[in-house]
């Protein structure tokens, strides 16, 4: 069977959704391709649900059967049955009836894939990610006017307009003297999974299309996709996607790899890395990148999540509620003490607690850290996933929820994050350089019997208000929110007792 590079052109097809790092995924794909005689076999990108990887979807016209992590032998049997004229459903995890021309994965009614919406994530796992033939480009006909009018907010710590209207950034870049440039900041060195990775692997054309639409809006002739140098698989796929779409896109981005460092993902630090600076650190602001960015040019810096939201808004204006405080959807990666990580998409009216249905926890739920490694700690996820709700709760908006079970020690958990901040800050400003060290030391003092709550909170206030970089400003958040929720646990450690029983050696 020859390799198929398009999925949507066939009413009967076998899709193998894999993240490209699964050995079983490669075996399953190989088994499918060697078995199929007349049936197209297409490798699609990840769906976002790791537990279902590889996921085999057997489609004939209006029906698709889903099989999670099947053996190669099972796949061979499925294809034999399909080529005999029927969709194999006997042992399927789910069977879904759908429009035969759907370009979005038809989500089952139950299971992890049913959690939330699949608007921006819709193509992930369903289309051939590197094939322009599976994509209807909007940037060739329209700019991002609809997205600007909808009031979309930037998404992720790597976005220069994080939680702010992207249209304001675009207008500034358009009105500033100089030739604008658009940067897609996809460099995230955190060990936590991100929605950006899912989009770049599952729907890179959506991101490239969004970049081009924004570039057309601000009249930029140049664009850059900035990725982590350690993600060689992502680089290879993106390079293939860019080359494949080059004859279609009105603006073709350049692919550049940057340092595998947490600090290099901050928007202005990304610009420093792109300019080849020896020392990667955030720039002092103002001026914002929209006024003076890459090589002094007006620069729009967004994450892949933001560009994909822009593309979705332009392609389907009805999918974005312009009256909402946080229009569009929020993509959330779920990690922590779970059997497998997941990426889901939630409406602004949904509850963040829905993410728990996408994963299986190792133990009983105790707390969550919302917003990434420097997010906020909470006992409850009963809140909207919007920027406004999360900030009101003192949590982060970076699109990551870590679920922790009762075996986790709160003090140890936030102590590790404070130490992370003390090592990963840029060192440019005193609050970030020295404040993070002092914060880590104050937490270490707890094990020696000293819990100075007032001093921790005053240091945190100063760091939040005066740090130049995100690391210094956000480093106190895990600590202060954890104290708000679990102060008795902190005090217990001063008496030599760890309620979770995990800090015995330290005490």
From TrEMBL:
<keyword id="KW-0614">Plasmid</keyword>
<dbReference type="GO" id="GO:0046872">
    <property type="term" value="F:metal ion binding"/>
</dbReference>
<dbReference type="InterPro" id="IPR019575">
    <property type="entry name" value="Nuop51_4Fe4S-bd"/>
</dbReference>
<comment type="similarity">
    <text>Belongs to the complex I 51 kDa subunit family.</text>
</comment>
<feature type="region of interest" description="Disordered">
    <location>
        <begin position="1"/>
        <end position="26"/>
    </location>
</feature>
<dbReference type="Pfam" id="PF10589">
    <property type="entry name" value="NADH_4Fe-4S"/>
</dbReference>
<keyword id="KW-0411">Iron-sulfur</keyword>
<keyword id="KW-0004">4Fe-4S</keyword>
<dbReference type="InterPro" id="IPR037207">
    <property type="entry name" value="Nuop51_4Fe4S-bd_sf"/>
</dbReference>
<feature type="domain" description="NADH-ubiquinone oxidoreductase 51kDa subunit iron-sulphur binding">
    <location>
        <begin position="411"/>
        <end position="456"/>
    </location>
</feature>
<keyword id="KW-0479">Metal-binding</keyword>
<dbReference type="InterPro" id="IPR037225">
    <property type="entry name" value="Nuo51_FMN-bd_sf"/>
</dbReference>
<keyword id="KW-0408">Iron</keyword>
<dbReference type="Pfam" id="PF01512">
    <property type="entry name" value="Complex1_51K"/>
</dbReference>
<protein>
    <submittedName>
        <fullName>NADH dehydrogenase FAD-containing subunit</fullName>
    </submittedName>
</protein>
<dbReference type="InterPro" id="IPR011538">
    <property type="entry name" value="Nuo51_FMN-bd"/>
</dbReference>
<dbReference type="GO" id="GO:0051539">
    <property type="term" value="F:4 iron, 4 sulfur cluster binding"/>
</dbReference>
């Amino acid at each position: 069977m020859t390799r198929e590079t398009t999925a949507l052109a066939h009413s009967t097809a076998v899709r193998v959704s894999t993240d490209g790092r699964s050995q079983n995924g490669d075996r399953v794909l190989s088994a499918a391709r060697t078995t199929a005689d007349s049936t197209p076999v297409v490798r699609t990108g990840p769906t976002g649900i790791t537990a279902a990887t590889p996921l085999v979807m057997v489609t004939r016209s209006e029906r698709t059967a889903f099989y999670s992590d099947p053996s190669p032998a099972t796949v061979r049997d499925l294809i034999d049955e399909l080529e005999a004229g029927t969709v194999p459903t006997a042992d399927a995890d789910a069977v879904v009836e759908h429009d035969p021309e759907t370009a979005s994965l038809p989500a089952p009614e139950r299971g992890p894939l049913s959690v939330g919406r699949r608007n921006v994530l819709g193509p992930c796992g369903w289309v051939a990610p590197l094939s322009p033939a599976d994509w209807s480009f909007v940037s060739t006909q329209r700019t991002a006017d609809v997205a600007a009018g909808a009031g979309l907010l930037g998404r992720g710590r790597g976005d220069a307009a994080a939680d702010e209207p992207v249209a304001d950034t675009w207008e500034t870049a358009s009105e500033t003297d100089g030739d604008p440039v658009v940067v897609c900041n996809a460099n995230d060195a955190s060990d936590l999974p991100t929605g950006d990775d899912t989009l770049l692997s599952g729907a890179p054309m959506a991101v490239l299309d969004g970049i081009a639409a924004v570039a057309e809006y601000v009249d930029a002739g140049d664009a850059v996709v900035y990725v982590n140098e350690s993600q060689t698989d992502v680089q290879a796929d993106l390079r293939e996607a860019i080359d494949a779409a080059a004859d279609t896109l009105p603006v073709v981005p350049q692919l550049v790899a940057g340092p595998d460092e947490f600090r290099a993902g901050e928007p202005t630090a990304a610009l420093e890395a792109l300019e080849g600076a020896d020392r990667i650190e955030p720039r002092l602001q103002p001026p914002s990148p929209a006024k003076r960015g890459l090589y002094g040019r007006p620069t729009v810096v967004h994450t892949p999540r933001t560009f994909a939201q822009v593309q979705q808004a332009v392609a389907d204006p009805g999918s974005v509620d312009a009256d909402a405080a946080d229009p569009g959807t929020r993509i959330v990666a779920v990690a922590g003490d779970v059997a497998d990580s997941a990426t889901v998409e939630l409406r602004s009216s949904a509850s963040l607690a829905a993410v728990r249905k996408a994963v299986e926890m190792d133990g009983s739920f105790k707390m969550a850290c919302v917003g990434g490694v420097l997010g906020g700690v909470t006992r409850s996820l009963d809140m909207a996933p919007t920027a406004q709700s999360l900030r009101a709760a003192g949590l982060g908006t970076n699109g990551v929820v870590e679920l922790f079970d009762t075996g986790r020690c709160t003090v140890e958990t936030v102590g590790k994050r404070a130490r992370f901040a003390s090592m990963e800050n840029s060192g440019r400003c005193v609050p970030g350089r020295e404040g993070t060290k002092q914060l880590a030391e104050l937490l270490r003092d707890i094990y020696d019997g000293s819990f100075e709550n007032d001093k921790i909170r005053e240091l945190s206030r100063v760091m939040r208000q005066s740090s130049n970089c995100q690391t210094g400003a956000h480093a106190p958040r895990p600590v202060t929110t954890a104290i708000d929720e679990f102060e008795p646990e902190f005090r217990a450690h001063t008496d030599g007792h760890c309620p979770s029983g995990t800090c015995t050696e330290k005490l």
